[in-house]
Write a structure and sequence with these properties.
The chain is mostly helical. Helices cover about 55% and strands about 0% of the residues. It binds zinc ion (ZN).
Length: about 170
C-alpha cells in the first residue's frame, strides 16, 4: 500500500485549490476548513511566506545621500587649528616657555628646603669621638709594642694583666 500517492480528502483538495489561488483571502468556505484542518493551515502559511511583498518605496538616492544629510544635521564646528591664528599659537607657546623657565629658575634659587625634619639626637652618640682614620693609630701602637725591649715588654704585660683573684683562705 503506497501512502504517498493517496489523494487528499475532497474538503482539503478544494481548500488547497482556494489557498493556491489566493493565500491571503481564500474565501469563507476555505477559511472554515483551515480552522479545523491543521495540515491545510500550515500549507496556507507556506504559501503566504512565498508571497512577494511589495518593496518599500524610498525616494531616489535616499541611501546614497544619507551620510551627507547626517553630516549636515550635526552642529557645525570648525577645528581648533582653524579657529586659532598663528599669533594665538605663538602667544600660547610663549606663555608655556615662560612658565617652564620660571619654574626652572625657582627650583635653582631655592636649593635649601624651607623646612627640614630634625630629630633630637641621643647624647651618647654625639660624645663618641670618631677618628678620621680608625685603624691607623692601632697599627702604630702595635709597631711601638714590637719595638719595645724585653724588659719594657715584661713591664707592659704586667701592667695589662688583671690582678690575680685573691682566694679567701
Ligand atoms: Zn485540510
Amino acid at each position: 500500500m503506497n501512502l504517498e500517492f493517496l489523494p487528499p480528502p475532497e474538503a482539503c483538495a478544494t481548500a488547497l485549490a482556494a489557498v493556491q489561488a489566493d493565500p491571503l483571502e481564500p474565501g469563507a468556505e476555505a477559511e472554515a476548513h483551515l480552522k479545523v484542518c491543521r495540515a491545510c493551515a500550515e500549507t496556507r502559511v507556506f504559501y503566504l511566506a512565498q508571497e512577494e511583498s511589495p518593496e518599500v518605496l524610498v525616494p531616489a538616492g535616499y541611501f546614497s545621500q544619507l551620510p551627507d544629510r547626517i553630516l549636515r544635521k550635526l552642529p557645525a564646528r570648525t577645528a581648533l587649528h582653524r579657529r586659532m591664528g598663528p599669533l594665538a599659537w605663538a602667544t600660547a607657546a610663549g606663555v608655556l616657555m615662560a612658565v617652564g623657565a620660571g619654574a626652572f629658575l625657582a627650583g635653582r634659587a631655592n636649593r635649601t628646603p624651607y623646612v627640614e625634619a630634625t630629630l633630637p639626637r641621643p647624647a651618647e652618640t654625639l660624645e663618641i669621638p670618631v677618628p678620621d682614620t680608625p685603624f691607623h693609630d692601632r697599627e702604630e701602637e702595635a709597631a711601638q709594642v714590637q719595638a719595645l725591649s724585653p724588659d719594657e715588654m715584661k713591664a707592659l704585660l704586667k701592667r695589662l694583666d688583671p690582678p690575680a683573684p685573691t682566694s679567701p683562705r
